[in-house]
């Protein structure tokens, strides 16, 4: 059976279109795969090893400190502080002083502490402490040395030791015990506090107490709590190193010391107005 022309035409048309596409596919070569990337180590030439650190390199990295910048704990320094250089008013008033001087470093220091007051134109009481101090904590020093009493009565020498520093809430404390001739003992406690009203206007209350283990009538001292002194001073720091002040001081004798004072025709207590300057260098 002879196929009809209408049935052959669609098949011939499909073959005619497919032949060029097959020929084109047979002549096309697949692309070659990309070569693997060359590593950076293979691309760069080998480098020389890092040279060893020399003394010259270390000296260049850590140059010596400039003059004046020595380690603080090896630097010798000092301070002279007159906490109270004042005049106390009243019929029997006169000048007085409270001085603390130290020289040394951050750990070991030589301390000189001196106090005195005068009445009626003569020195009524005065003493000097020469103490070696060593820091035992951030805020506290242990001190030990000698004390020389000039007044009242004949001069006498004590051997003493104690502690000084800042208590909690920044109370400054000095607690020192002494042993003198003939078995005499003395315990002295001093405390003060600085209350800042402004950065330059400061109120400073102070208190001092002395306890004696034995009576010493020649010097007007009884056994037990002998004297208690207090003060309240208001100062203005024109400069940190110079601050004038005004205030009031109070002192009282107790027990045997008060009896000896009355027997000598003196009062057991007194209150005075004070004015002076606090200075240091």
Tell me what the structure shows.
- The chain is an alpha+beta fold.
- The protein has a single domain, classed as monomeric porin ompg (Porin), CATH 2.40.160.40.
- Helix content is 15%, strand content 51%.
- The protein has helices spanning 5-27, 40-43, 55-61, 255-263; strands at residues 77-88, 94-104, 108-119, 122-135, 140-151, 156-167, 171-180, 185-192, 195-196, 201-212, 224-236, 242-253, 269-280.
- The chain starts with a helix and ends with a strand.
Q: How many domains would you count in the coordinates? A: 1
CATH H level: which superfamily?
Answer: monomeric porin ompg
Structural class: alpha+beta
Query: What is the count of β-strands?
Result: 13
SSE string: HHHEEEEEEEEEEEEHE
CATH class: Mainly Beta
In helices, the fraction of residues equals 10-25%
Number of helices: 4
Rg over C-alpha atoms, rounded to the nearest angstrom:
46 Å
The spatial strand order of the largest sheet comes to 1-2-3-4-5-6-7-8-10-11-12-13
Write the CATH architecture name: Beta Barrel
> DSSP strand (E) fraction?
over 45%
Q: Mean pLDDT, as a whole number?
A: 85
Largest sheet, described in full?
12 strands, antiparallel, barrel
Low confidence ranges: 1-9, 22-28
- Kindly report how far apart the N and C termini lie: 137 Å
**How would you describe the shape?**
elongated
* CATH fold descriptor: Porin
């Amino acid at each position: 059976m002879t196929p009809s022309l209408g049935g052959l035409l669609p098949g011939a048309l499909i073959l005619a279109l497919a032949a060029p596409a097959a020929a084109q596919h047979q002549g096309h070569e697949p692309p070659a795969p990309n070569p693997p990337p060359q590593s950076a180590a293979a691309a760069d030439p080998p480098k020389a090893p890092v040279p060893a650190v020399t003394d010259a390199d270390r000296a260049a990295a850590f140059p010596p400190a400039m003059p004046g910048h020595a380690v603080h704990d090896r630097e010798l320094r000092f301070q002279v502080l007159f906490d109270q250089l004042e005049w106390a008013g009243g019929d029997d008033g006169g000048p007085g002083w409270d001085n603390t001087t130290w020289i040394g470093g951050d750990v070991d220091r030589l301390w000189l502490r001196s106090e005195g007051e005068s009445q009626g134109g003569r020195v009524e009481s005065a003493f000097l402490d020469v103490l070696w101090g060593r820091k035992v904590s951030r805020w506290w020093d242990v001190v030990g040395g000698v004390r020389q009493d000039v007044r009242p009565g004949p001069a006498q020498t004590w051997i003493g030791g104690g502690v000084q520093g800042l208590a909690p809430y920044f109370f400054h404390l000095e607690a020192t015990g002494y042993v003198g001739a003939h078995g005499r003992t003395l315990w002295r406690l001093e405390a003060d506090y600085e209350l800042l009203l402004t950065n330059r206007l400061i109120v400073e209350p102070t208190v001092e107490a002395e306890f004696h283990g034995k009576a010493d009538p020649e010097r007007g001292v009884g056994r037990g709590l002998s004297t208690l002194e207090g003060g309240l001073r208001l100062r203005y720091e024109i400069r940190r190193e110079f601050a004038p002040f005004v205030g009031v001081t109070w002192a009282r004798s107790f027990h045997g010391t008060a009896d000896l004072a009355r027997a000598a025709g003196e009062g057991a207590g007194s209150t005075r107005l004070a004015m002076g300057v606090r200075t240091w260098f």
